[in-house]
């Protein structure tokens, strides 16, 4: 039985966290010994981990990278070692690479969970360290292209595995009969998610008299972006749109909100492979989102959704206005096609089999 360490920084709210839990469960169900290791206290998904009976350990470390590195090295030694480490997100992948560089005996899958927008020094260091990874696995084709273009020496180890969606869980229900047209977003309140421009576009809609629509945003403020979050909440009041948009805390019961909205919107400036768009499509929802990264691989323009330019408030406004004014019958057609795409593209089976192929290849 191969032993696998699944390493991620936290079990807080996020797409990477959900994907990691799903992967750990599948590997366990298929006969692998799996330990899910984190090093930051955050238990948003703890109930899900307990439900699936996944072995999970949070290592108690000081708030510095060397403490985390030492704690993970110590854990590996005390548990007798692992055949593979699967690391999600930048911190864990860097830790995995450094441990390999200093003699770690495990094989390493370093998973890229976002798209690189510019090559800062920390990114150059990360991609340099990736030479110690056995596989570099982006979850977005845009990121694979970026790596192959900028770091051709990594080309042999790069392979994309896009996210899965549980289409048996995220299912459509009868068309909602809301008093107002509901547009929903699921995302952290963060600069990447483009909250400020989104609020400006909503203000434009109100000025046009399109007030029979309500926006619901589900997600907590990104850690270390509290100032930005406060600015967005204040801006909502300054623009006079507090009657049009509500910010809600992150919730594990997001399914009912997907099912009860009319349209899903994700206004991000950049993304990886957005789980929330896939989940909304699986629930049979039309999509309006930014034309960035892998979104055009997922959403079919004028068939199940439309795009806008996230840095252009007028473009966001026009996209929202267009979908708000669409005939109900056309929205239903788009929603049905969203579900069809989800069933064909976001297969759990394909996602898991690709990981098993890597694990069994060496």
Briefly, what is this?
The chain has 362 residues and is of the alpha/beta class. Helices cover 42% and strands 16% of the residues. The strands form two sheets. A six-stranded parallel beta sheet has the order 3-2-1-4-5-6, sandwiched between helices. The chain has a six-stranded parallel beta sheet with strand order 9-8-7-10-11-12, sandwiched between helices.
SSE-based structural type? alpha/beta
Identify the CATH architecture of the largest domain. 3-Layer(aba) Sandwich
Give the overall form.
globular
- Using the coordinates shown, work out and report the CATH topology of the largest domain: Rossmann fold
In round numbers, the mean pLDDT is: 93
| N-end to C-end Cα span | 15 Å
Name the CATH superfamily assignment of the largest domain.
Glycogen Phosphorylase B
**Strand proportion:** 15-25%
Unreliable runs, pLDDT <50, ≥5 residues? none
Instruction: Enumerate the strands of the largest sheet in spatial order, edge to edge or round the barrel.
Output: 3-2-1-4-5-6
Round the Cα radius of gyration to an integer and report it: 21 Å
Helix coverage percent of residues? 40-55%
GO molecular function, one term: glycosyltransferase activity
Domain Glycosyl transferase family: 178-340
Protein name: Glycosyltransferase
Pfam families: Glycos_transf_1 (PF00534)
